[in-house]
Amino acid sequence: MNVIAPPTPVLQVESLSISFPHPEGKGLVPLVQNVDFSIAEGEIMGLVGESGCGKSLTSLAILGLLPRPGVMSGGTIALNGLSLQSLDAESYRRLRGKAMALIPQDPLSALNPVYTIGNQLEEILTTHTDLDSSQRHLRMRELLDAVRISNPEQRLKAYPHEFSGGMRQRVLIAMALACTPKLLIADEPTTALDVTVQADILSLIQELCQDFNMATLLITHDMGVVAEICHKVAVMYAGHLVETALVEDLFASPQHPYTIGLLQSIPRPNVKQLHSIEGTPPSILSMPELGCRFIERCPQAEASLCATAEALAFRSLSPSHQHRCVKA
Q1: What is the 3-state secondary structure (H, E, C) of 197-235?
Q2: d(CA 36, CA 18)
């Protein structure tokens, strides 16, 4: 009997580690360690965790935009089977905006205030396509229509300051979709927006991901956002993934104490006092060499179990649900 191999994921990240030089010259300090995940066509994966846990660094490594002097100190990243480590700077630049695109979290600073929306959209199309002037103009109108911006002909002549925060975010989504990328990275795309606009933008991203069949990495600290639009989720703490699962499995049966703490902090009807995770994440200069990095904040921690190398091993609850907790 012939066995059909599963399709190659659009994005495959294996054992990704990112390091920066120690401020006192003591070698490299790992900020992200041994991160593994994959995203298929049409799939939205949420990458969740507190600020500073390594989410945005992970996305910048994928895009080839790690801030210096940071380096990718281990692992591999593949886009449609193409190893991104094998690319030179120019080849990487040609991929950005075409095969993979970013929706940044601050729409005001991401747009150039002295150029019209049309100028900025056209620059992407000029760089990455062979369309002539009239074709580019038609494509720009189509893109604004796709992100539900009315009167596209007039809006192309407008400047960023003439748009609201939600409209600027729609423009950034249109720019990201300009060349129909295979991979979309959305870095906290609703952080600066009010609640009603947030819901609108998330619905738009979900709809467009389905329409364009894109693999999408959604970076957020909001578990409510993950529950709303993601298919699966990876929970990150202090540079480590501590749990990965399908969204429904994670919400039904969270295993790692950090994941449980995040879920308990979500506002719910009839809950008068929200749960909080006491303490703060460890400093990057004083990470425990062995064991779970959540040990100082974990109500279940036992040094004899949690401060050992064994605590770092991934455990499988099912083929799609893994976690790093010896006491789960």
Answers
A1: HHHHHHHHHHHHHHHHCCEEEEEECCHHHHHHHCCEEEE
A2: 13
Asked whether the whole model's pTM tops 0.90, one would answer yes
Distance CA 148, CA 144 (A): 6
Residues in the chain predicted with pLDDT less than 50, given as ranges, are: 1, 3
Fold of the 11-230 domain: Rossmann fold (3.40.50)
256: number of CA atoms within 13 Å, CB side? 32
Rounded to an integer, what is the distance from CA 141 to the centroid of its chain? 28
Q: Where are the extended beta strands (E) located within 221-294?
A: 232-237, 240-246
Alpha helix locations (H) across the chain? 55-63, 89-95, 107-110, 117-128, 133-146, 152-155, 165-177, 195-212, 223-229, 247-252, 257-264, 303-306
End-to-end Cα spacing for the chain:
39
Is the Cα torsion angle 127, 128, 132, 134 positive or negative in sign? Answer: negative
Please report how many Cα atoms fall inside a 13 Å half-sphere around the Cα of residue 137, on the Cβ side. 5
Nearest Cα neighbor of 205 from 221, 185, 224 is 185
- For residue 145, the model assigns a pLDDT of 94
Query: Looking up tokens 């190893």, which residue turns up?
Result: 83
* Closest to 116 in 3D by CA, of 175, 67, 35, 190: 175
Q: Which of 294, 296, 297, 292 is nearest to 307 (CA)?
A: 292
Q: What is the pLDDT of residues 34-73, one digit of tens each?
A: 999 999 999 999 999 998 899 999 999 999 999 999 999 9
| Per-domain boundaries in the chain | 11-230
β-pair partners for 217: 45, 185
- Report the relative pairing of strands 240-246 and 232-237 from DSSP bridges: antiparallel
25: Cα separation from own chain's centroid: 31
Region of 15 on the Ramachandran plot (φ > 0 left; ψ -120 to 50 alpha; else beta): left
Given the structure tokens 């100190």, which residue do they identify?
73
* CA–CA separation, 29 and 52 (whole Å): 14
pLDDT on residue 303? 87
Rounded Cα gap, residues 75 and 173, in angstroms: 30
